[in-house]
Amino acid sequence: MNVHTLLQELDATYRQLKEAHTQLSASMLRIEELTAINERQRIARDLHDTLVQGTVGLIMQLEVVLAQLRQQRTARAQETLQQSVEAARNSLPDARCAIGHLREEHLCPDDLVEIIQEEVQRLTTTMPITCQADLAALTSIPLHCANISGAL
């Protein structure tokens, strides 16, 4: 193999690496976009599951209390009201968690791992290079819900 051929191969390899770097940079930007979109969707689901459903349940229980009071069933109304208070107290930590996600930049590790794996797969199928990602550390990220404290 002569020097000219070797230089041509090095140049071709350099161009491939440069293209791979460009695609990797674009992939990283796409991962960030997808992560943000995914996080917004997850937060919307959390808010719906915690705040909306909890509020609807509380309204329904309070309507039952009103009906019981109209029927002069005060003992039963007090019992239902106590259950409503307990249900509201029990749903409060979930609501705090969902709101805490809005206050912090929160990433869901499972979603992030999946997005990165898809992007690595796409990169390896489109480029003539091998790409691997060690994502084990991402799965051990603690959930923020456990650390949220304070009143809403």
Form type: rod-shaped
Mean pLDDT: 77
Instruction: Indicate the low-confidence ranges by residue numbers.
Output: 142-152
Number of E strands: 0
Instruction: Summarize the main sheet.
Output: none
Please write the string of helix (H) and strand (E) elements: HHH
The number of helical runs is 3
Percent helix range = over 70%
Distance between the termini: 72 Å
Write down the Rg.
Answer: 27 Å
Strand fraction equals under 5%
Structural class: mainly alpha
How would you describe what is shown here?
By secondary structure, this protein is mainly alpha-helical. The protein has one domain (3-147). Helices cover 76% and strands 0% of the residues. It has three helices and no strands. The protein has helices at residues 3-70, 74-103, 109-126. Helix 1 (3-70) runs antiparallel to helix 2 (74-103) and helix 1 runs antiparallel to helix 3 (109-126). The radius of gyration is 27 Å and the shape is rod-shaped. 4% of the residues are buried.
List the helices and strands and how they pair.
Elements: H1 3-70, H2 74-103, H3 109-126
In short:
By secondary structure, the protein is mostly helical.
Considering the chains and any ligands shown, give keywords for the structure.
152 residues, mainly alpha, disordered C terminus
